[in-house]
Design a protein that fits this description.
- This protein is mostly helical.
- The chain has 15 helices and 2 strands.
- About 30% of the residues are buried.
- It binds a DNA duplex through helix 3 and helix 6.
Length: about 300
Amino acid sequence: MGRSPRCDKDGLNKGAWTAAEDKILMDYVKLNGEGKWSRLSRETGLRRCGKSCRLRWMNYLRPDIKRGNISPDEEELIIRLHKLLGNRWSLIAGRLPGRTDNEIKNYWNTNLAKKPEASRSVQLHCLQREPTVQPHATSQRELEQERLPESDIRGVANLEPQVAQQNAINGELGPSPDGNALLKRMLSDSDMSDGSLSFNSEEESPDFMIDFNVDDICQILDSDFSKLGTDQNGYVHDGERETKYPSYLNQHLMPPEEAEKHLNDGLHIRDDSVSAFQSLASLFESDDEKWAGGGGTNDANFALPGKNS
DNA sequence: AATCATATCAACCGCCAGCTT
DNA sequence: AAAGCTGGCGGTTGATATGAT
């Protein structure tokens, strides 16, 4: 039970699609929209199973698809996201407009998987660990040896974390470059072998990221970062889809009575979580305009602290 | 020019979750 | 509650293209 019918039953076609089949599929989707793939074959006489139709549409016929020529920026994002998410190709593809999960999976397997991890990481702008660290330190001594230099942890500006965070909140450093570098570093060093992120030391994992579960990250990635903004008081909210955030984030939200002091609506993130949250967002949204402008929210109050004040 | 090796990528397969009956 | 159906996902395959000898 529960299994979809096999495509090879009842003489359904397999293999490469013909131009005529493509046309039937495109015409049907134009008329009826996506979905209902099984109805498609029944109603059009196309001798393809629903799954095959869906795959052909999603990976090849969709009008907004970009094919080939993965740019260096896209490659870097793929590497970052794969570091963060593993082989969750559909989620990765969701962050690369016009790219399909199949294409990214193929690209990874043919181009990136073959490269040694070190040569992949060197393409990231984030810091490189030195010396090379064994993936699983077991003893306290080994853990101590793996710790990053204090200056490294605090980022390029060599600030005390609290100072860097406060600067970010106050708008003195823009989109929290220190937190960003730190987060990238954490993602580079994180161990996801058990399905969750873990860090080499508490110093590397601010409260925001401790026990950060991959599934939570996946849900956050499903949010639209272009909608994120920070109001003039320095509180982060998305203005549109606050309910989209996972319950996990609740612990990072201000209590309602506190939030009310600042705005009547929106998502309010605790002062001590703002920097890390911005860092996570800026990993995937490097376009400052989207931060500064609210990405289409046309809310004049949406601006990164310091960007317009 | 012929053959073999390797790379690429479209498509298939099996599993699963969620929905409907 | 159980069975059946569908869509979605990641892993894998195999036909084709390209490069090397």
